[in-house]
Amino acid sequence: MDFALTEIQEMIRDTARQIGEEIILPNRARWDEEETFPTEALDALAKSDMMGVYIPEEYGGMGGGALDLCIAVEELSKFCGSVAVSYAANALGAFPILLHGTEEHKQKYMPKLATGEYYAAFGLTEPNAGSDAGSVETTAVRDGEEYVINGTKQWITNAGEAHVYTVIASTNRKRGARGLSAIIVDKDTPGFDFGAKEKKMGIRSSITRELHFQDCRVPVSHLLYKENRGFRVAMDTLDKSRPGIGAQALGIADGALKEAAEFAQNRVQFGQPVTAFQAVQHMMADMAIAIEASRWLVYRSAVAVDNDEPGASAIAAMAKVFASDTAMKVTTDAVQVCGGSGYMREYPLEKRMRDAKITQIYEGTNQIQRNIIALDLIRRTARKS
User: Fold this and answer.
1) Which of 89, 114, 128, 161 could form a disulfide linkage to 60, CB 3.0–4.6 angstroms apart?
2) Strand 139-143 to strand 180-186: parallel, antiparallel, or no bridges (unpaired)?
């Protein structure tokens, strides 16, 4: 396959890199230390028309897809994983509307998301429903022309900052996963509130909160797709967004290798640069191999998702698993290459190591992704037999 970038995709990459160098790089340590939402970076992305790279042109976007989003997320992640996920979470919240919303829904929300006037978020995870999405306990009970929502969502990226939320709630508890529905909830809806900002190991300037619903009334017209078909909305959304997590992990790893190589080249031991030692050379070579393999798999998965190819879910799961496992190993090895300096907060590598870990966990743990991959393999094998 030819993954040569188009002129527009090169512009997306170059713009993200420029914002990374000029705005993210000088501020990322402070944002991480203060756990401050990176508004300056997102404002710069909005002014550069980058918030709508995945949104169709008729709604004010660039008309790209998952691949264009991955290119932007990868480049931003080379500078800061927190900024990248704050940016990418808008797509996670918007994809349900793009994939299953009515034309009225799209006209209402997409132009504002494309300009950065609005941020979006996706509400699926709960205290007792994470990997087991079918165990959602938040309820949406129909009362005339409204749904009354009650419950709590946990660990929601951009919560409190976002203006529009796609929430997965149970409209028929007896049916489990087949009784879930996807509903749009606006931030200012009465009965909808947020928990305290979570204190996290990594991606600290990305804001994570709970969503609290207490007799929150939402018009029935805010339903996405069909009642009791919200599980499909959620799975379609995660398939579309999962390559972006791979891209985040890829960027974190790529940035870590670059910083470790620069440090090792300038660090002199026994009268020569650390890069002169074969043990270090082999570590960096293995990092480079894994990063390049991750890039091709992430891009391949984005193309599969954009083209609705058979087996795209499994390919997206592969990309997420391989790239995030690579990010964790590469950042760990990058800290090792830099020795004691790599462990110090004065240097960026310890932050990258902290940021990398979450990519193995959110949007479906890597263990769940392996289940998806294996089940797809079993189904394809069964069809051939």
Assistant:
1) 114
2) unpaired
Between helices 366-384 and 312-343, what is the axis angle to 10°?
Answer: 150
pLDDT reported for residue 339: 93
pTM of the complete model:
0.95
pLDDT in tens, 126-161: 999 888 877 899 999 999 999 999 999 999 999 999
- Residue 267, amino acid: R
Strand-pair category, 223-224 with 192-194: unpaired
Q: Write the pLDDT tens digit of every residue in 263-291.
A: 999 888 888 989 889 999 999 999 999 99
At 1 the pLDDT is 62
Domains of the chain in sequence order:
7-119 (1.10.540.10), 121-228 (2.40.110.10), 231-384 (1.20.140.10)
- Measure CA of the first residue to CA of the last residue in the chain; give whole Å: 29
Whether 10 is catalytic is no
Instruction: Report helix angle 312-343 to 230-266, nearest 10.
Output: 30
What are the residues whose beta carbons fall under 8 Å from the beta carbon of 281, sequence distance 6 or more?
Answer: 275
Handedness of CA 279, 281, 282, 283 (dihedral sign): positive
**How would you class 150 by CB atoms within 10 Å of its CB: exposed for 0-12, middle for 13-18, buried for 19 or more?**
middle
Residue 213 phi, psi dihedral angles, 5° rounding: -120, 125
Which residue is catalytic, options 74, 161, 350, 363?
363
3-state helix, strand, coil in the chain (%, to 5): 60, 15, 25
Q: Given a cut of 80, is residue 109 above it in pLDDT?
A: yes
**79: Cβ–Cβ under 8 A, 6 or more apart, which residues?**
20, 21, 24, 25, 28, 255
- Distance (Å, rounded) from C-alpha 11 to C-alpha 303? 19
φ/ψ of 187, rounded to 5, equals -55, -40
Other beta carbons within 10 Å of 335: 21
The CA distance from 99 to 94, in Å, is: 9
